[in-house]
């Protein structure tokens, strides 16, 4: 069967055709779009204004939240039990206890300082011990310069939301009728930096923080008179109403002004932008918009037709051929008359179909299954995470002086890696495979800090002549430690036992975990019951496939509910006679 490929012989490659066609049809659109963007910038006035409003509102809310956060930390500090103890029992404390409480308060102040980039200094004054404690000057007896400054600020009436001393800004709160003062200095450079971030939203824009009563607290403008003029454009009501952005004229220039309330400071954050930066005259926009729209439709139609002709049709032929492959019809060939990339793709497809047919006839599926099992075995031999954790456990045992446990873990670990890394036959005596699984259990129990235990039966009935594939029991036990106890249960147990009767070898692994649901067990049994050709990468499925490939369909794994409450895995081997 042959499929004819559409198209004529061409010296151009497909990607060259696509690029050339795309450029030819898109260049007029790009040129017109540039011109329209220049002519139509002012049509985006509302969007830009809304964006500026949203940007200023976002930054002001962020600043407001940060100031509220600092105030909450200050109130939490005043209620700190160590600080309260210093306040109430300061004169009755022993020297050691007083020093210890002061250190605790200093740690709390240090934590408060690093909790926000806006805090440059945090301190408290405790009247009972006659000391100030701060991150800047440490523990200092009173009177001192820091206390004098705070005292002078607290004399201001009525009490403001924040205090200013020159260019410095403070939050001051008291507790216990003035027996404890808490003061936090806010970084003026950081506040100014936050204002500059807002001002950077648009060119020729400035931001100020203040109100008509307090004046300008901070501004990004170079001239202070400009900020005062902006504040003069608002009355007290409109200044604190963040829903009233609009145009104002100042010094003959129209400004778009956006006020936002910073309630934590009882101030307003005002951004004002030169209107000429965000508005431009606009003419003939509607006509050119529809023209551009029609041209875009024509371009899309022409481009779609070109792509369909040069790419979609050949790919459709290829997709149809793959669908026929999926129906196990391998007697298919695609004939190509072009000399482009699809010619190579079609020839490669024909070669693939021919090789696939030959491989399936040569028992290809069984070879792939064996290769997967070998790859899984090699992967299981290299587990650096498991090794690193084991070495860390040995290190910690040595640190705490538990030499017996460290020696036992080292011995088990050595035996474990000696087994999985040695070269030799793929099959080993069952006794060695069983002992290797027990070594793995010992290592995991030590790594789980004895939160998990295992019980096993010494196998004495299995003939020494029985050999099994390597690493068929460990993946089952590994599945228990990885999944049954992943919720951190403290009394995890694994039960392992063997039984050999009438030429049949059975190994049972159970656990008392509570994570395996009936639906999960049923789903696992469904996967285990599938034919060995199914592609699975999990350990249990891999072991099941290896056993079925070697010993037949009667061998393999089955899952059920354990009498201990967890998952029960039965491994069955019927040795070849």
Poorly predicted regions are: none
What is the CA-atom radius of gyration, in angstroms? 39 Å
Shape: flat
Helix content percent band: 40-55%
Strand content: 15-25%
Subcellular location: Cell membrane
Pfam families: His_kinase
Protein name: Sensor histidine kinase YesM
Transmembrane segments: 12-36, 285-311
Describe the protein's architecture and organization.
- The protein is of the alpha+beta class and 577 residues long.
- The chain contains 18 helices and 20 strands.
- A six-stranded antiparallel sheet has the order 4-3-2-7-6-5, sandwiched between helices. A five-stranded antiparallel sheet has the order 9-8-12-11-10, with helices on both faces.
- A hairpin with a 2-residue loop joins strand 17 and strand 18.
- The radius of gyration is 39 Å and the shape is flat.
- The chain starts with a strand and ends with a strand.
- The model has no long low-confidence stretch (mean pLDDT 78).
